[in-house]
Design a protein that fits this description.
The protein is an alpha/beta fold and 176 residues long. The protein is 36% helix and 18% strand. A 7-stranded parallel beta sheet has the order 4-3-2-1-5-6-7, with helices on both faces. Helix 4 links the parallel strand 5 and strand 6.
């Protein structure tokens, strides 16, 4: 089953920290998503979004960039959705449109996207060891998997591409 997978994480130059240290994992995630035939959505800009999108494109996959006002995004967006909205509002469109969300590193914008994904009931997969809110949020999870007592959806952790593939397969089968 094809999923709409939103990938969130650090923005910024792909040649500067903390993004440059994540090239390998971003490329692996992108290739994996493309090989499995999933449609990939990102915020369409630089950083993790650009690295994942580039890998998806190289593998022949589809990338949708959901862009904030005034930003044309990176060159790997096959489809650009120009929201005309600021970053925070654009993020709500991005997460509402997802079947599953993968988080890689990230700062406050990524935190907003993790929380909104959870609030919408979408599974969130944290790529462990990538820093930022992706790793920090683990310390506040209830029973290691929920953001609040409503237990809206599980927040899961992938520590490898193999873990990610297993979790994506569960999502494809409606088990995540």
């Amino acid at each position: 089953m094809m999923l709409h997978v939103t990938v969130i994480g650090y923005s910024g130059s792909i040649s500067a920290s903390p993004v440059k240290e994540l090239h390998g994992i971003c490329e692996e995630v992108g290739r994996t998503l493309a090989r499995h035939g999933h449609v990939v959505m990102t915020g369409g800009r630089d950083g993790v979004m650009e690295l994942v999108s580039r890998a998806v494109s190289k593998e022949g996959g589809r990338v949708i960039g959901v862009l904030p006002a005034g930003d044309e995004g990176n060159t790997h967006n096959e489809i650009r959705i120009r929201t005309g909205m600021d970053f925070a509002l654009r993020s709500l469109i991005l997460t509402k449109s997802a079947d599953v969300v993968i988080s890689i590193g990230g700062q406050a914008g990524t935190l907003l996207e993790i929380i909104s994904s959870y609030s919408y009931g979408h599974p969130v997969i944290l790529m462990g060891g990538t820093g930022g809110w992706t790793d920090r949020i683990v310390s506040v999870l209830i029973d290691g998997k929920y953001l609040d007592e409503r237990r809206t959806s599980e927040v899961k952790r992938a520590n490898s591409i193999e873990d990610l593939e297993r979790l994506l397969e569960e999502a494809e089968n409606g088990k995540v």
